[in-house]
Amino acid sequence: MTVHSGRLHGSPLELECDTVVVGSGSGGAPVAATLAEAGERVIVLEEGPNIPGETQGRLRPSESVRHAWRDGAMTLAVGLGDSPSINVTAGRMVGGSSALTGGVCFRAPEHVLDEWAKELAIDDLGPKPMQRWFDQVAEDIHIEDVPESLRSKSTKLFAEGGEKLGIRFDSMQRNTLGCNGCGRCNFGCPHGAKLSVDKTYLPRAVAAGAKIFSDVLVEKIHFRGNEATSVSGSLLDGRYGAPNTAVRIQCKRVVLAAGAMYTPQILARSGLGRRSGALGKNLTLHPSFRVIGRFDDPVRGWEGALQSAYTKHFEHDGMVFNSVFVPNGILAATMPGFGKSHAKLRQNVGHLAMFGVMIHDDGGGAVWNVPFRREPLMTYRMTKRDRPKIAIALKRMAEIFFAAGAREVFLPVFGLDSVTPDKLASLDLDRVHGRKLECSSQHPLGTCHMGSSPDRSVVDATGKVWDTNNVYVADGSILPTSLGVNPQWTIMAMALRVAWRLKGG
Predict the structure, then answer these.
(1) Nearest CA to 488 among 30, 125, 177?
(2) N or C terminus of the chain: which is more exposed, having fewer CB within 10 Å?
């Protein structure tokens, strides 16, 4: 797959096309492939570098974080009030976050799609109309069940503990082919088994004539009346990758797929999306927490698929438990203590098991443009309905680990030592302030959400930005609510739905 490097271009970039797609991840890639295969002249602009799969697979985790992750994996949603601050990880490379996920694929739950269809009065967002798009994505990126043989001992222990408590665990689905369970999904698959969009949709787009440019920062859309005529920005060819050389792409249509953090920035700088007051608001993150159990026998949790099993046993409470493991160096660094006490825990890293929980949250966050700063400011306040879920989820996970035979459990609470069953019973997790909670997210959604009225939403039922004739959004920012499950499958399905309308389907 040929990708043109903006950093090496050497002169102002001035081109013309039918559709310019801003962003090459789970939203932009399906749109680019669909429209290019329909005969359109398509240009894809990606802010990040091009890191071919075979190169990415050879990177150490620290190198991957530095080169492929946005802001070196240090992006933060600042917690307001009693809410935790949330580390939001996202990809910044050709293929976007798709290249850095664990490959987990969930369809949007039927009750979520029903809610969208009924409350927004958009009938074709319901489960039956959306089925065709989910099925098409599953075929395009080869979604398959993770076999139980790829479950790590870490996952098996947690599942065994859960089953003793009457909790059923099921196999996840992932977009993989030939996975051998090396557990490196977040940092690039060394074996090329994860079928992210840089291996599926983007090569199709290029084969159909689309052009992809990396290292291009898009800053603004330009108009004649309500008609977008071009986008402008800069090649990141300055010192240390700073914006330097001018970019101008003349086009008949703009599709923004820069993600829930960056699409609202581009719209705001272009004077769009302000009528409803919803632009940049309604940010959902699926706040996620990990709990670690220490066992007497070796676990070696890195041997097996990074993510392989989950339980929806507590879905009615707004939480889903997902298996996960991280590289030893990262895992050891997250353990409590310092000096000798920390060294002792590091030496026992092979005896640690880990599991995660994801909260199905309301839209309590926002993305803000900050003058003289390229990166947005994100803030997040958990709603009164969501905040109590944290203590409930952490206690349940600890109980499952103890049922599996863990000697002690480490909760994601800064300054808290390990917990035994007796200590857990006396620990009031409801009183732990949000500032003391370690929390992460990989799923920013909702900041340009879809709706049936320009007074309450940013885009209409087709993904078109209200009050424009030819500007569309096709990424996670258009999802009306959070999903409660990993969103990449839904984002791709929604992007195909938008693209099909654009090509006249």
Answers:
(1) 30
(2) C
Active-site entry in 286, 313, 443, 449 = 443
User: Beta partners for 284?
Assistant: 445
pTM greater than 0.85:
yes
Please name the helix (run of DSSP H) or strand (run of DSSP E) that holds residue 311, with its range, or none.
strand 309-311
CA distance 443 to 464: 22
Helices 127-141 and 110-120 pack at an angle, to 10 degrees, of: 130
Q: What distance in Å separates the CA atoms of residue 143 and residue 139, rounded to the nearest whole number?
A: 7
Residue 316 annotated among the catalytic residues of the structure: no
Long-range contact pairs involving 416-424 (C-beta distance under 8 Å, separation at least 24): 416/336, 417/336, 417/337, 418/294, 418/336, 424/395, 424/398, 424/399
What's the Rg (C-alpha) of the chain?
A: 22
pLDDT digits (tens, 9 = 90+) for 234-256: 999 999 899 999 999 999 999 99
The Cα 58–Cα 63 span in angstroms is: 9
Of the candidates 270, 325, 283, 4, which has an alpha carbon nearest to the alpha carbon of residue 157?
Answer: 325
To which H or E segment does residue 331 belong? helix 328-333
Q: Checking phi first, is residue 86 left (phi over 0); if not, alpha (psi -120 to 50) or beta?
A: beta
pLDDT in tens, 200-224: 999 999 999 999 999 999 999 999 9
Distance, in Å, from the CA atom of 233 to the CA atom of 251, rounded to the nearest integer, reads 14
